[in-house]
Design brief:
By secondary structure, this protein is α/β, with parallel strands linked by helices. The protein has 2 domains: 260 residues, 3-Layer(aba) Sandwich (Aldehyde Dehydrogenase, Chain A, domain 1); 181 residues, Aldehyde Dehydrogenase, Chain A, domain 2. It is 38% helix and 21% strand. The strands form 6 sheets. It has a 7-stranded mixed sheet, sandwiched between helices. Strands 9-8-7-10-11 form a 5-stranded parallel sheet, sandwiched between helices. It has a 3-stranded antiparallel sheet with strand order 5-6-21, with no helix packed on it. Helix 9 links the parallel strand 12 and strand 13. Helix 2 crosses helix 6 and helix 3 packs antiparallel against helix 6. The radius of gyration is 24 Å and the shape is globular.
């Protein structure tokens, strides 16, 4: 493994409250370097008073922001996008340091961030609502998409840029103010993007806090109008319950246990390469990672051989190394959970095809692992692992394959590998997931909605659906001619 690259010191440790950079007034948070487990930086969390001030400031600023012409709001998003692109190398370095993801991939995600800001700047110029037929002549009926108000955005550590802009770009474009908190592990990335956003909007429209679950809970309970959360199903469920109690909409994008089904007619080499890519992207720390694979029994051994060779060949190392494909996991807990799932599967009869162990070095490293002979008695086929593991199970016919794929409370995505259009049709008509990928896994289309069902939440991001998610419809019934209607009460008697 090449020597760990030393990165110049980066601050980005101030909160953004009412347009000002301020030091946090709460507890100190140590941010670890996933490459060696050391504390790389310390950031002060927001105090309870700062949370209240940030929310109040967002509320005070939101009305004037919503009242601006759409061209002005869209121009602000375009300016944010331009600064993100201009500072791309700085942002890439920080994201790589904080996430442990390969730097080569982070370049892609910085470009995605800038692109989405530009997309929603344009889309908001063309999408405000619709005109519907009126009851009678002389009337006009408008359905307008209005901003929700103040949106609390809670962002996870795996994609701190992309998953923030999935919420912030459409929310700001449609006239909302936002109060943002990133995961403690990637706080500085969130603060940096927040600083860039705040520079191009009026003071108060973008507020960015730091902290743990207590700060997030205060944002949920505070005078915000919506909570937009991406993260685990357990935390999302708690947020959803609390929002229901206080009658506040919750936009929840939660976990997954995405299946891949490889049918006997598939291009076997492409299918093996696809599931390896989808399982080990970002060390498996993707909500849409392929976390369980079902392969036709007639090709099982060939598939095992291809997956084992591909998994063993992955280049694991310092994410700043241009040759690295898989970096460390982000947390010690993630390594422990991955190891526990693998050990339990092996104890129940699974066979290690490649990997299967924690790397003997400081930091949060687990070797990319492929398992054969798995079944649904094992946690690794039922619970979200969120780590670099690819478990494979054989099936005997299509009915069994679809039954196994559906045997989960989650419903985020699914992948199938086949050249049979009848199988594809059956899959998209019956699998209860938000996205079905056919022969090309884990691809987001910015023009199409992303989100899940059931335990994976019900939020939709990206596309026009992602824009509408941060608005509420308002019906305007306008009788242009006016006058007394014959069905009104007769008040002349």
């Amino acid at each position: 493994m090449p020597a760990v690259r030393t990165i110049p010191a980066m601050s980005h440790d101030h909160l953004i409250v009412d347009g000002a950079l301020v030091a946090g007034g709460g507890d100190a948070m140590g941010i670890t370097d996933p490459r060696d487990g050391s504390v790389a930086h310390t950031v002060m969390a927001a105090s309870p008073d700062q949370v209240s001030v940030a929310i109040a400031g967002a509320r005070a600023a939101q009305g004037a922001w919503a009242a601006l012409a759409q061209d002005e709001r869209s121009a602000a998003l375009e300016a944010i996008a331009a600064e993100v692109a201009e500072r791309a190398e700085e942002i890439v370095d920080l994201v790589t340091l904080e996430t442990g993801r390969a730097r080569t991939r982070n370049r892609v995600y910085v470009d995605w961030t800038s692109f989405l800001l530009r997309q929603y700047a344009v889309l908001a110029r063309h999408h405000r609502g619709r005109v519907v037929p009126s009851n009678t002549s002389g009337q006009l009926s408008l359905v307008l998409r209005m901003p929700v108000g103040v949106v609390a955005c809670l962002i996870p550590y795996n994609y701190p840029l992309a998953l923030l802009v999935h919420k912030a770009a459409p929310a700001l474009a449609t006239g909302n103010a936002i109060v943002v908190k990133g995961a403690p592990e990637t706080t500085r990335t969130t603060l940096l993007l927040g600083e860039i956003m705040a520079r191009h909007v009026p003071p108060g429209v973008v507020q960015v806090l730091a902290g743990g679950g207590d700060v997030g809970a205060a944002m949920v309970d505070g005078e915000t109008d919506m909570v937009a959360f991406t993260g685990s199903t357990a935390i999302g469920r708690a947020i959803g319950v609390r929002c229901a109690e206080i009658v506040k909409p919750a936009h929840l994008e939660l976990g997954g246990k995405d299946p891949a089904i490889v049918f006997a007619d598939a291009d076997l080499g492409a299918a093996a390469a696809g599931v390896v890519w989808a399982a080990f992207l970002n060390s498996g720390q993707v909500c849409t990672s392929t976390e369980r694979v079902y392969v036709a029994s007639s090709i099982e051994e060939q598939f095992h051989d291809l997956v084992a060779a591909s998994t063993a060949s992955l280049r694991v190392g310092d994410p700043f190394d241009e040759e690295t494909q898989v970096g460390p996991l982000r947390t010690e807990a993630g390594v422990d959970r991955t190891g526990d799932h693998v050990a339990e599967a092996v104890a129940r009869g699974a066979r290690v095809l490649a990997g299967g162990e924690r790397l003997d070095r400081p930091g949060f490293w687990y070797r990319p692992t492929a398992l054969g002979g798995t079944d649904h008695s094992m946690r690794i086929m039922r619970e979200e692992t969120f780590g670099p593991v690819l478990p494979v199970m054989a099936f005997h016919d299509a009915d069994e394959a679809f039954r196994l794929a559906a045997d989960t409370p989650y419903g985020l995505g699914a992948s199938i590998y086949t050249n049979d259009p009848r199988i594809v049709k059956h899959a998209y008509e019956t699998l209860r997931v938000g996205t079905l990928w056919v022969n090309d896994p884990v691809v987001d289309n910015p023009a199409a909605p992303f989100g899940g069902m059931r335990a994976s939440g019900s939020a939709r991001e990206l596309g026009v659906e992602g824009l509408d998610a941060f608005t509420v419809p308002r019906h305007v019934h306008w009788d242009i001619e006016g006058g007394v209607k014959p069905w009104w009460y007769d008040a002349t008697d």
